[in-house]
Amino acid sequence: MSDTATPTVIRREDYAPPAFLIDTVDLEFDLVPERTVVKSTLRVRRNPAARHADNLELMGEQLEFIGAAIDGTPYEHVRTQEHGLTVLNVPDAFTLTLTGACDPAANTTLSGLYVSSGNFFTQCEAEGFRRITWFLDRPDVMSTFTVTLRADKTQYPVLLSNGNLIEEGDLPDNRHFAKWEDPFRKPSYLFALVAGKLVALEERIQSGSGKEKLLQVWVEPHDLDKTRHAMDSLIHSIRWDEQRFGLELDLDRFMIVAVSDFNMGAMENKGLNIFNTKYVLANPETATDVDFANIEAVVGHEYFHNWTGNRVTCRDWFQLSLKEGLTVFRDQEFSAAMSGGDENEAARATKRIEDVRVLRQMQFAEDAGPMAHPVRPESYVEINNFYTMTVYEKGSEVVRMYQTLFGRDGFRKGMDLYFQRHDGQAVTCDDFRRAMADANGRDLAQFERWYSQAGTPRIAVTTRYDEAARTYSVTLSQGYGNGSAAARETQKGPLHIPFAIGLIDANGADLPLRLEGEASAQGTTRVLEFTETQQTFTFVDVAARPLPSLLRNFSAPVIVDYDYGNDELAFLLAHDSDPFNRWEAGQRLATRELLALAARAAAGQPLQMSDALVSAFSRVLTDASLSPSFRELALMLPSETYLAEQMSESDPAAVHAARQFVRKQLATALKADWLAAYERNVTPGAYEPTPEAAGHRGLKNLALSYLSELDDPADAVRLATAQYDAANNMTDRAAALSALLNAQAATGRDVARAALEDFYARFEKEPLVIDKWFSLQATQRGTAERPTIETVRALMRHAAFNLKNPNRARSLIFSFCAANPAQFHAADGSGYAFWADQVIALDALNPQVAARLARTLELWRRFTPALRDKMRAALERVAAEVKSRDVREIVEKALA
Fold this sequence. Notes:
By secondary structure, the chain is of the alpha+beta class. Among the domains are: 177 residues, Sandwich (Immunoglobulin-like), CATH 2.60.40; 140 residues, Neutral Protease Domain 2 (Neutral Protease, domain 2); 104 residues, Immunoglobulin-like. 41% of the residues lie in helices and 21% in strands. It has 27 helices and 31 strands. It starts with 9 loop residues before the first strand and ends with a helix. The N terminus is likely disordered.
């Protein structure tokens, strides 16, 4: 189907196995930017498990047909269509040769084969291979690939594809070739090729079984000095997967290639991972602590796909979370291990908090909107729209619940059985669930609902203490609340929820927990298996009324409703032994205060803050027993986006007013403590991207951010200017520039201009750093005299801005529309008109990127009436003008 085709709904219930299988694929490429000729030789046979078909139907997009042959003889009985090719009256088994051509230089969609900075790259997931040659482009058709690349030797000295290099040499007319063979069967979405002027950082390591492996990180020559961290991350990933899951690198060579034009973060093509430069390139001068951590996580994620996604892949795209949710869980566990190992529970908890913050801010919102869908969707129009937070992040939480239920050893047994059964196969989420169940001797039939029901479950908790009987009863009730219509359609019954709980006494100590009917206490945190609509659990030998610590370590992706008092939340923030719940208590306390203030702001009433939040923040800020990284997270206020979603009618202006008021009050009341925290957490000497050093920088820069909110931010301007001038790393330099922009908005004085100009001059030739420059300006607060949208419009005319580059579009347009809610949701609707302009412009260039931007307004019905009307008008304009099915699916669902 082409981008402009009439949308067709594809349903999971309609799945049928392919009528034909393709055992081997032999591809030959003559690489020329404007017209690359591709010859594919396929060994085809009928699928004995499928319904008989006389004709072979292959998918193809934007291809020029040159010729076809069967068993070496030209074959005329071929029909080409806009969306594919039909080979008529084929025998039961045959060799099909197809020759066609494509235009990589004109391919702005960045799907299929395209040119970036004069080099060739591919992106085939989900359906890009059909833009290269005609094929059964579906994940349950797995083949072995042999690939021959031919190109001009001067322009394209490096020729890469999946697997092992088996032959290379020179050709006439200054051309050369390379032949690659991948010994493992794979679906076409895992195919990759790269050709161009690239250089590599190389390492040779020995696997756990003693085999030598060649590791390469390929980049453009000027970026070679930024590859060490990616290489180290790859080596750490390989070692961790061997140790944690017994999974060894199965190829002789593993390659990572960085490209600046890329729709996603990275792609796990077998043995030849192609990455957005954002997740490869790093040195202290150009990358922040967050960049270093993200590179490690994404390198790990794509490497872990080698087994969870490549060796065992998806039967169909409805099973996408089979590989993505599982691999996100694996990369989260890897990152937690890298941040502090299994021994440092506080470091692991910090990583857990970071992951849950993302889930709740983004995936919970998705569950509440028109694009709500189960972890395993039931239907789609455009599969690219289902690379979602639900599939990835909620899918990861579903996988994590297996480990919560069975423990790490039980989870490992399930993984071992999964690979034993399904290595080399295309399978389903149910196959993974059955492996977990069988390995642990458990019935997980009810657990299937996590895959098939959309929406965020809500758990209401009530408690009862019986002083005479010394019992404490906890009653859990599960449901979904109002939710979205899209989610309600899928909800069939109660879920199997692992609910972790602790009980805390008046001194802040954890109580030993013994449930009614048990002979003895079993630990201080218990995982309750909550499987009914309502269920009561009774703890015995409880000497006095305790305070419950609910859903420890966020043991399930749910919302907990329990009526804690402010004093109880403050107590939990001070004493809970579960780091996640300690953080959660502070967030609840802050959210309660902020929403009350937002209501007053919306009503035009004066704002006044309680002392409770100041006292709670003061205790955390000055508690040296807490790690700097934990304190940084605990002292961050909930985001404006998250807060707006908690309101019955989202009012971004009121939320912004409330949040800024609280930030200023905290800055003023705790000024001396912020200044002391800044000084105590300076990291002198050479930059090190270690978790400990990053924690100190994070807390220091958070203190600077608060100080920049003061009515008189002279101290912040002084500190930020000195920090900017002396910085030996991008973390401190970018944080200083951000603080100056904050102070500029607070005072109206032009204190950031010199630093902005210097920043651009220093890093003009570093695209990823200039992305930061654009993003910082797009997310600044702005003023009534100069709203941020004026800055954004001016920056779109800047010589460094290029709408065709996804990173640049995200750094400016997405940052403004998705990360600056108060400015984007301006009362005059100017933000929505700008959004519509950009969605329409991007739709003509790159529908995948346009569709992601389109989702910014999918929750429009949740806003105040005046904003709703303007959003609807912008959505209707987009719906009338865009052509791609990617964007149309989003806006039509939003308007439905």
